[in-house]
Each structure stands twice: as C-alpha cells, then as structure tokens.
Amino acid sequence: MSSSDSIALLAQRLQTLIDDGIKINPATANPAPLGLYGFALTTALLQGAKSGLTEPGTGELAMGFGFFFGGLAQFVAGILEYQRRNTFGMVAFCSYGAFWMSLAIYTTLVSAEIYGPTPSKGDRLMLTLWGIVTFLLWLCTFHTNLVTSWLFFSLSLLFWFLAGGVGAGEPGDARSTLTKFAGGWGFMVAATAFYDGTASLMKDVYGKSILPVFPLKPVNRVSLGDFGTKRFVDPEAQTVKA
Asked: What is the mean pLDDT of residues 118-136?
C-alpha cells in the first residue's frame, strides 16, 4: 500500500470516528478554568459591596476587574471554547464576559457623569433578563455535572435576588435586606465557580479527577462532564470517549 493510500485510509478512519460521535482530544488548552476564575473573582468583589462586608467603593473596584479579568479574560475563554467546538462553553463565557465589560463601561460613564444615574426600573429589568438568560443556560447543563448545573441555577437566582433589591433605601427595609442576602448568596455562587474551575484545572494538570464534580448522565449520547471538554458516549461500550 502506498503512502498516499495509507493517509487516505487514516483520514477515512478519523472521519468515521468523528461521524460516530467520538471526538479527538483537542490540541488546545482547556480555557474553562480561566473563564470560571475570572467570573468568580469579579463576582465575589462586587458582592462584598452588596453584602455590606466591604466599603461601598468596592463596587467600583470590581468594575476595574470587570473590564479585564471578569470581562476580557472570560470572553477570550469563550472564543477558545469555539476552537474546541464546545458551543455551550462559548455561549456561556462570551455572554458573561460581555456582561462584565458592559457593566464596567456603563458604570464608568455614569461615574464620569456622561450618563445620568442608573434608572431603578431599567436596572431591575436588566438583572431580571440576565436571570432569564442564565436560567435558559441552566436548562443546557443536564449533561454536565452537579457542580456546573448548580452554578448556573444559583446564578440565575442571584440575578433575581439582586433585581428584587434594586432601589434599596434605609438599612432594615425589605429591599436593603434582600440586597444583603443577595450579596451573601453571591459569595456562595463565586465559591462554586472557584471550585468548578479548580476541579477542571487540577484534572487537566494531574491527568485525573482530584476534586469531585459528580458527573450527570449523558443526554442523547452527549456528555459534558467537564465544563471545557465535550464528550460523546460510545453506545456499545457505554463509556465516555474523550
């Protein structure tokens, strides 16, 4: 058999594997830990101000990180997920990266008095809509793992808690209390993202699962056990192929 015939045969076999749903391990690094860390740290900073744990100016500090770590780094992670043919990771990371950059630039323009003060009803609508977007993404996590699924569900609740607290007045009123509760809830969401990102990073670095994420069952032969790596189930062996 000539070399050209061998190459053609190899290409045919690789295509057969792809058609059967077995994905070749991607040559690119897993961007999920970067995206999750960017999201987690920036979220935790903002919730410091919301919960009253830190000074109100911490919100502006969070916006600085929103431009780059929570925003740009997370958006880049989404673009890299595109290279890995991971549609869910691309949509999630690009969406939240764009969210942080949008929030950061808007807050900056308001502080510079180029824009007027944030309208309460508009702020509430924005947070409510992001809660809906996150809830819809949560509906696409039933083939991932318990940690990732909980991250998106708890994040959708966080957006709605924050929306309910918009327009908080004096300490002790209902909206102010809800905002403080949302701040504490946000720390839990950030901790979940840190855990998810660390579990994915340690698995990539050490070559095996160190922190459990409790994978969920595949849906329609597709599993996304780790946030940044798409897998397909071999119907004959009933195992997951990388």
From this structure: 95
pLDDT band at 97 (very low <50, low <70, confident <90, very high): very high
CB 34 within 8 A of CB 73: yes
> Residue 128 is encoded by which pair of tokens?
């409510």
Percent of the chain with pLDDT over 90: 58
Rounded CA-CA distance 55/170 in Å is 16
pLDDT-based confidence at 69, cuts 50/70/90? very high
Q: Tell me the torsion sign for CA atoms 117, 119, 125, 128.
A: positive
Torsion angle of the four alpha carbons 83, 89, 92, 98, in this order, in degrees rounded to the nearest 10: -30
pLDDT tens digit sequence for 70-94 = 999 999 999 999 888 889 999 999 9
Contacts of 205 (CB under 8 A, 6+ apart): none
Q: What is the CA radius of gyration of the chain?
A: 21
- Rounded to the nearest angstrom, the gap between the alpha carbon of residue 237 and the centroid of all alpha carbons in its chain is 31
Whole-number pLDDT of residue 226: 78
> What residues contact 146, with CB distance under 8 A and at least 6 apart?
213, 214, 215, 216
Say how far apart CA 62 and CA 39 lie, in whole Å.
11
- Strand stretches in the chain, DSSP E: 222-226, 229-234, 239-241
Could you tell me where the beta strands, DSSP code E, fall in 134-199? none
C-alpha atoms less than 13 angstroms from C-alpha of 74 in its C-beta half-sphere: 30
